[in-house]
Amino acid sequence: MKLFNISPINYELEEQINHKIDFKTKPLNALGTLETIAKQLCLIQQTLTPTLNNTLLIVFAADHGIAAKNGISPYPQEVTAQMVLNFLNGGAAINVFCKQNNIKLKVVDAGVNFDFAKNTSLINAKIAKGTNDYSKQSAMSKQQCTEAIKKGAELVEQYHNEGTNCIAFGEMGIGNTSSASLLMSAFTKIPIEHCVGKGTGLTIDGVSKKTVILKQVQNLHGISKDPLENLKNFGGFEIAMMCGAMLKAAELKMSIIIDGFIVTSALLVAQAIAPNILDYCLFSHVSNEQGHKKMLSYLNAKPILQLDLRLGEGTGAAIVYPIIQSSVNFMNEMANFESAGVSNK
Question: N or C end of the chain: smaller count of CB under 10 Å?
């Protein structure tokens, strides 16, 4: 697999950035997290005047072989394809929030178990019609895993070449909280029972049953020191594709808005491959899925919002976007003490 060349952020401009923020017409640190976001964007873009250009959110959709196993999800696998059609028709939460905040939305078939009509806006990057049932074998082959990463990277490079410098990711795939829980446990070394949550709405008994199944899966495959082996064993095509997309975005020095539990599981894989990726990530929110807070703690990440979301699709990333815009706007448009004729003594 092609290695990604992700350089750490250059901090040479830090003093100038801090000076510009501190001499705006406000008390020191009065804009709190907005100042932190503005500084990070300035460092990513290596400028004192950051911009958000052609911001894009990509939803990757795929099915999981494990979803056919009783006890993993209260919803049948067909819901993945049905929700993809809902995205294409503009009826999902992510459509509403992207439209509200003027974010371009793209939907990618990474591996849905359905044949979509060709005359839609859906991007066909299908690896296969869903992964294997990883309670019996690896979710995907090494070749499929590599191909998914490559396709995610190619899409991001395309949009970067079209002028996008800020990107977010969402996902859809019945059963993908199970993959995310397994990946979380593999990378954080947290026992699987502390990683499993309600997903799309399991009861307490349902969560217990799901935990038993996933513990058996973990015992079958073990945990590898190779991040790609864990991704191959436990991942979904949408998670692998997001992983490649994130790695390419960081290599291209784009700002990456991280959504919730599933998206962060893809980031766990990506940061194990290239730790510098975290320099380019803004963490939109902490999910109501029980493992997400632990994921963020492992990554030493501070989420911007806490809204008890547990929907996926990239909704948290879309909702937080106006706050990120506010950080850019105050940095570029707010007066400083000298230009405003305001005393700072």
Answer: C
Overall domain count for the chain: 2
- Which residues are within 8 A (CB) of 127 and not within 5 positions of it... i.e. 6 or more apart? 62, 110, 111, 140, 144, 147, 148, 151, 237
Cα distances (Å, whole numbers) of residue 233 to 103, 185, 268 = 34, 13, 15
Q: What is the pTM of this model?
A: 0.95
Q: Where does the chain show beta strands of DSSP type E?
A: 56-62, 104-111, 123-124, 166-172, 255-258, 281-283
Residues 42 and 65 in one domain: no
Give a yes or no: residue 72 inside a domain: yes
Known catalytic residues are 313
Do 119 and 39 have their domain in common?
no
Give the torsion sign (CA, 11, 268, 261, 317): positive
What single letter denotes the amino acid at residue 204? Answer: I
d(CA 103, CA 345): 41
Which residues, listed in sequence order, are joined to residue 60 by a DSSP beta bridge?
Answer: 108, 171
